[in-house]
Write a structure and sequence with these properties.
By secondary structure, this protein is α/β, with parallel strands linked by helices. The protein has seven helices and six strands.
């Protein structure tokens, strides 16, 4: 059984969370991107009045959260070290992850990227794929390194883009 820390936000992080919970592995904590952008009081108010799917899942399954202002901060690193993760799984993140964080897990830091890498690196690959008029897209799991979306590919799954698909769908 792997000990997993999930970092991310939105539908991608929510889907990854459900997958971890359905597996035999243990989700030991989550670190939400929106928590890096606001203080605890603002986060509490947003979660109470306008909860998103990810925050609702965290609350429903009583998953402990890491509180820090950056995935590269000393505060995040200290909390993560106490949790002894085998894997840090990234599902949508808004900052470059540095080596002092990448080396934390016993096995690997893995990113789930919503395109078929190596094309459409970086943020918003959904719109990029549609704008380029491509007929296929997919998802890539790859090792995290200090560059953006360039680590060794572990797994890819291709899906067709339908005529009515948009960057949002």
């Amino acid at each position: 059984m792997l000990r997993v820390i999930l970092v991310g936000y939105g539908e991608l992080a929510s889907s990854l969370m459900l997958g971890i919970l359905e597996s035999k592995h243990k989700l030991v904590s989550v670190f939400r991107w929106d928590k890096t952008e606001s203080n605890n009081i603002t986060s509490f108010v947003k979660d109470s009045l306008w909860p998103n799917n990810f925050s609702t899942l965290i609350k429903t399954y009583k998953i402990p959260e890491i509180n820090a202002n950056s995935i590269n901060s000393e505060k995040f690193i200290k909390q993560a070290l106490r949790l002894q993760p085998d894997v840090i799984l990234v599902g949508a993140w808004g900052e470059k992850i540095k080596s002092n964080t990448i080396i934390l897990p016993k096995i690997a830091c893995v990113n789930c990227h919503p395109s078929l890498l190596p094309v459409h690196r970086g943020s918003n690959p959904y719109a990029s794929v549609i704008k380029q008029g491509e007929s296929k897209t997919g998802i890539t799991f790859h090792l995290v390194n200090e560059k953006i979306d360039t680590g060794s590919i572990l797994l890819q799954k291709e899906i067709s883009i339908l005529d009515n698909d948009t960057g949002g769908s």
